[in-house]
């Protein structure tokens, strides 16, 4: 078949050439884009990328990835804070000595400190002096108080070592009952339980919101991708009709939409990461006082949180690529 | 090259658009396909182009039973058939050059291997100066010629053209007809669907006439 279709030379050509008559440069001017002339021909991607739907798709992907990233970060931050709270509570406990008839409070305090320090798992024990106790009560009783005249309980602050467990508190309680009858151990059990319930509830709510946001993200991205592919249905048809194999068409679209997905996900995920990164470093840059530091500290997330955001971004890009693939196949089945 | 035997076609549950159509397209032939609007000319071209399956009958294309083709074989056969659609179907985001080169590009060929060929063909159809322009700024006749060039670039053995003169003035229509005849002389089988009597009167060729679903051949 080669050479069968011999094209006649220009002189013999009956071809219409109305605009050929010496108008050099006219075409560049009419194209309105001189760069189009210098660009190596045939390099433009087959799948159109500058369409309104394509831009909308990038925006949808970026926004949804951002929201999912924020949610992951927030859940991760909540879980960190909850873990910290519970750990703080568990690491501290107090011994209370109630003044009673003829009780030598100071001796009882000293004894309690001694018992506590002797208990394995206790890192430190320290009696709060009357002044410190008074400071604690200031908000309620005002300044200039003589504690000696009031039956105010005195406290021993006990810090537990990292090795402490439930047995440590039991041993401490037993030792106190035996040697300092006037002492009672406040292990914050109720408070700790309530706090841990709160932390668990917060985590459960966070995970539920995360699940909803993840579902919404996947749905939005799927629907938007499908719409974008449907908008390019004409391109699929033309490629099909000029003899492209299905695998060629599908891989062109999949490559294009993977790039779109990665771009959108990088924008959204990057913004979420930047937000958390700023949240965790800004306070120290601006040397805010500790109050604000702890407030904004809630925004701090760890590597796992950053990993989660990157993970969701990758997931979104994959969903985009796979949806485009499935939609192109469906379109092709509809054509023939 | 192509053989239709007792082919019938209906869209969905509708009436039969084509009934007992039997004809063939011999190699190196030139024919007009005509008939009133809505007679089924485009439908017949779609059958020829493998983008529609017949409800009845047998279609053989290049010796292959059209009903028994795998998708990839269909794509391969399509590369041997050039088609000019009634509505051109150019891609607006690609330049004229890129549109014309598309059939070669989708075969996975490197741009360097076909650049000269595409440029030459574009000059031949008189679009040499409009090569890097996007289709939306082309005139109707220029689009028509770009669509024809795209159908020709992979040197098809059969060229199908649906109303190729539907959008152009009589003088351009004459020039396009000369282009098709030139192609026919170089060995391609050409089938032009048209209801332009003036066009058919300019060249005495085989006529396939569809009327009320039946096809009659006037040699
Ligand atoms: N996709 C379709 N679904 C249902 N009916 C269709 C479809 N395409 C065409 N038809 C019907 O089939 C008949 C033949 O249509 P076709 O387009 O083949 O005619 P035509 O000869 O090309 O007409 P024209 O000269 O106006 O282009 C018409 O009655 C049309 O309504
Ligand atoms: Mg038609």
Automatic annotation (TrEMBL), chain A:
Endoplasmic reticulum in keyword set: no
Superkingdom, natural source: Bacteria
Keyword set, alphabetical order: Cell cycle, Cell division, Membrane, Transmembrane, Transmembrane helix
InterPro entries given in the database record: FtsX (IPR004513)
Residue span of region Disordered: 1-43
Bilayer-crossing regions: 56-78, 202-224, 265-286, 306-328
Keyword set includes Membrane: yes
This protein's GO CC annotations: cell division site; membrane
Biased composition (Low complexity): 23-36
PANTHER family linked: CELL DIVISION PROTEIN FTSX
Protein name from the UniProt record: Cell division protein FtsX
Annotated organism of origin: Ancylobacter dichloromethanicus
Organismal lineage: Bacteria, Pseudomonadati, Pseudomonadota, Alphaproteobacteria, Hyphomicrobiales
Gene (name only): ftsX
Automatic annotation (TrEMBL), chain B:
Keyword annotations of the record: ATP-binding, Cell cycle, Cell division, Cell membrane, Membrane, Nucleotide-binding
Compartment(s): Cell inner membrane; Cell membrane
Domain called ABC transporter: residue spans: 2-219
Gene Ontology MF terms: ATP binding; ATP hydrolysis activity; transmembrane transporter activity
UniProt superkingdom: Bacteria
Gene Ontology biological process terms from the UniProt entry: cell division
Main location: membrane
GO cellular component, one term: plasma membrane
Subunit field text: Homodimer. Forms a membrane-associated complex with FtsX.
Biological role: Part of the ABC transporter FtsEX involved in cellular division. Important for assembly or stability of the septal ring.
Protein name: Cell division ATP-binding protein FtsE
Organism in which the protein naturally occurs: Ancylobacter dichloromethanicus
Gene responsible for this protein: ftsE
